[in-house]
Specification:
The complex is a heterodimer. By secondary structure, chain A is an alpha/beta fold. Chain A contains 23 helices and 20 strands. Classes of the chains: A alpha/beta, B alpha+beta.
């Protein structure tokens, strides 16, 4: 970070009346929004902005690819709940952000992306590095803006932050032409946001909440299905209170892990395609499903028609369009899940003891059933004396983390095993690309997460595929001596695709072998930090301990059994209770 | 089935694209679309006809309402409303059929906009089905070309416009 080299700092904070450039005005806005760090990559049209940044206290992290700026900002946002900020230049810079924007859109992550645009006079002329960023990113964002003149810049930037973080969070992009960065104007403080068509539904319907409380006490087999909204809405404490008040089993989706502590006795596991037997059977056999901040995603529900078919459904979500989208609930409640749960918990407690006790024996029996399922078919975490099983690796990481470390992941088999076997005892420890499933997410999101949580051990668990999409960022990690521990679960192939080819395509393994994985000792060494490869089970505990105890970055390449499959598995389009629990004979695709 | 939606939206750059974009992204086929400014030049009124399964109609309205620039989205198929369309039709006709064509036009309350030796240009408004008939009848007289406006709709009831009031923000205060 260059220090201001002029005696009179031009830092614009609190300097609202002063005539300033659009670039300085943008920094003023960022500062007022509480941004102290952002991730980006400069270019031709953002030169005026980066020039103004030279004198600013806001920290800019130069990544090695714009996609990773978006992923790092998302990692920052996911680890803190604060809005992440990324920046890219026009044309290729902006188009490189797109995957990160869609990722944030799918997972409802608050993100503000600033892109430069060519000079206003050149827009539409196929100018150098011109792309229709506004058009391209419209379906990739919650909302987007193009700034036409410097006077509207502050209003738009503040609106962007408001939109990104309020209601159902999401990415918002602001496209700024070069001449707007250069134009001079006065920063006019924006003390209110006026978006007449943007409705945020906070308070749930009181009558519906009361009815929901009644249904809960009337249920014999209640089951909580908690989604990412629990984290977005900071409703972890309220969720915990609810499951304790009624003493009922709860699952957290891939997006919600840590929303209810993995070590909490009422936590069952993750549900869905690779969820546990107990989670999916619980969903199937419950008579009341309490869905909180979740969207009945196909990876959770499997075949919709047979999902929770005996259950009445209470669905709480802040986005009205999610309520009734995939499943028509019996009690729809549109509102902020934290507010709704506070009221629901109160309503639940207001019921007379007779009412609360009426079905208590049934609930106890239900709990026994769910625990029985969990004992009958626990996740496979067996170790093998001859080869490192991926499950063994995750089991060891879990032991070291103790539910405390920030774990980021890429996408694929390792992601599922990590989600199954690693505990997250508080919210915002588990950082992964859920909805979009973007490979190459693990390393850059760890960068954002480590800047956000310098106090925390940050572990990036990658496959050998996703890791190779992010190798350029080793440079960013080294440049900032970030103590990120990258663990590559190396099975020599694109494991999840290989698993599907094995199970559903007659084991015809097409283009999944990842040959020529680099020597990590040399690779990490080239960036000035330590790398190591292990392939023996007896090395695992010691290697992880060494990696975690070594100051600074560490790259550990763990060669695991290549043909392991993730189980349980709900075949695509199947009902969740039709889980495949373990290895089966390969079948041909239809 | 066809669903007619009336949308009041802010006249902002890209607003039209956002509406059509959401429809296409979610797989709803747009059958007709009209848009023009309202008395308030900051706002536009849009009427869209989409082909959508009955059970998804509420979802379409919710997706429209979610757009930041959309102030109100109403399902006109469900509420008391009038839906009209306009058609401009050029028909070629021979000398001996001219009177018959004019007579037919009168039946459909169509107006003659242009008359030439070749034939006529006619203007008609009405409900979609009536205009379909009009076009069929005129086609029977000779080669014709048609430009249809797509449906415009007006609710028969006053719908209360619920707008979000301004929200105070901390951004007006400089962070120390």
């Amino acid at each position: 970070m260059p220090t201001p080299n002029v005696a009179q700092s031009k830092t614009p904070a609190g300097d609202a009346g002063r005539l300033m450039s659009g670039a300085e005005m943008l920094l003023e806005c960022l500062q007022r929004e509480g941004v102290d760090i952002f991730f980006g990559y400069p270019g031709g049209v953002t030169l005026p902005f980066y020039d103004a940044l030279y004198d600013s206290h806001i920290k800019h992290i130069l990544v090695r690819h714009e996609e990773n700026a978006a992923f790092a900002a998302a990692g920052y946002a996911r680890a803190t709940g604060k809005t992440g900020v990324c920046c890219a230049t026009s044309g290729p810079g902006a188009t490189n952000l797109v995957t990160g924007l869609v990722d944030a859109l799918m997972d409802s992550i608050p993100l503000v992306a600033i892109t430069g645009q060519v000079h206003s006079k050149l827009i539409g002329s196929d100018a150098f590095q011109e792309a229709d960023t506004f058009g391209i990113t419209r379906p990739a964002t919650k909302h987007n803006f193009m700034v036409r003149n410097v006077a509207e810049l502050p209003r738009i930037v503040h609106e962007a932050f408001y939109l990104a973080s309020s209601g159902r969070p999401g990415p918002v992009l602001v496209d700024i032409p070069k001449d707007v960065f250069q134009a001079m104007g006065h920063y006019v403080p924006v003390d209110s946001i006026h978006l007449p068509g943007y409705k945020v539904f906070t308070e749930g319907h009181a009558g519906q909440i009361r009815r929901a409380a009644q249904l809960i006490w009337e249920a014999e087999r209640p089951f909580v299905y908690a989604g990412g909204g629990i984290l977005a809405g900071a409703a972890s404490a309220e969720l915990t209170e609810l499951v304790e008040l009624v003493d009922m089993p709860a699952v957290c989706t891939l997006m919600a892990l840590g929303g209810l502590s993995s070590s909490h006795p009422n936590f069952v596991s993750m549900p869905g395609m690779h969820g546990s037997y107990a989670a999916n059977m619980g969903m199937t056999e419950c008579d009341l499903l309490i869905a909180l901040g979740t969207r009945f995603d196909d990876r959770v529900t499997g075949q919709l028609g047979s999902f929770a078919k005996h259950a009445r459904v209470i669905h709480v979500d802040i986005d009205p369009a999610e309520v009734g989208k995939n499943r028509n609930p019996d009690i729809p409640i549109v509102g902020d899940v934290k507010h709704v749960l506070q009221k629901l918990n109160k309503a639940v407690q207001e019921f007379a003891p007779e009412m609360r006790e009426a079905h208590a024996p049934a609930r106890v029996a239900w709990w026994q059933k769910v625990r029985g399922w969990a004992e009958e078919h626990p996740y496979d975490r067996r170790h093998d004396p001859n080869v490192i099983r991926p499950q063994h690796l995750m089991d060891e990481i879990d032991r070291f983390s103790g539910g405390q470390a920030v774990v980021t992941s890429d996408v694929g088999q390792h992601q599922m095993w990590a989600a199954q076997l690693i505990r997250f005892n508080e919210p915002r420890l588990w950082v992964n690309s859920g909805g979009l499933g973007s490979m190459g997410f693990g390393v850059p999101s760890a960068i954002g997460a480590q800047f956000a949580r310098p106090d925390k051990l940050v572990i990036a668990i990658c496959g050998d595929g996703g890791f190779q999409m992010s190798i350029p960022e080793l440079s960013t990690i080294a440049a900032h001596s970030l103590p990120i521990k990258i663990i590559v679960m190396n099975n020599g192939c694109l494991g999840m695709v290989r698993q599907w080819q094995t199970l559903f395509y007659n084991n015809r393994l097409s283009s999944v072998a990842l040959e020529c994985f680099p020597d990590v000792v040399q690779l990490a060494g080239a960036y000035g930090f330590t790398g190591r490869t292990i392939d023996k089970p007896e090395q695992l505990a010691e290697a992880l301990e060494t990696a975690f105890k070594t100051p600074g970055p560490y790259l550990l390449n763990v060669k695991v059994a290549p043909m392991e499959n993730v189980y349980p598995m709900v075949p695509a389009g199947g009902a969740v209770y039709e889980m495949v629990l373990g290895p089966v004979e390969p079948v041909a695709a239809d | 089935m066809l669903q007619t939606i009336s949308i009041l939206l802010e006249n902002k750059p890209g607003a039209l694209l956002r509406v059509t974009g959401v429809l296409s992204a979610r797989g709803y086929n747009i059958e007709g679309l009209t848009v023009a400014k309202t008395q308030d030049p900051e706002l536009s009124r849009m009427t869209i006809t989409v082909d959508v399964e009955e059970r998804l109609r509420t979802q379409v309205i919710k997706q429209m309402s979610k757009l930041v620039n959309v102030l109100q989205a109403t399902d006109m198929t469900e509420s008391p409303s009038v839906i009209r369309e306009m058609v401009l039709l050029r028909v070629k006709c021979t000398q001996e059929h001219r009177t018959a064509v004019l007579k037919e036009a009168e039946i459909f309350q169509a107006r003659v906009i242009d008359s030439s030796l070749e034939g006529f240009v006619l203007e008609a408004t009405g409900v979609t089905e009536k205009l379909d008939e009009f076009i069929d009848v005129m086609r029977s007289y000779g080669e014709s070309d048609v430009s249809r406006s797509g449906a415009v709709a007006m609710s028969l009831e006053t719908k209360k416009l619920r707008l979000q009031p301004p929200v105070p923000t901390g951004a007006g205060v400089a962070v120390a």
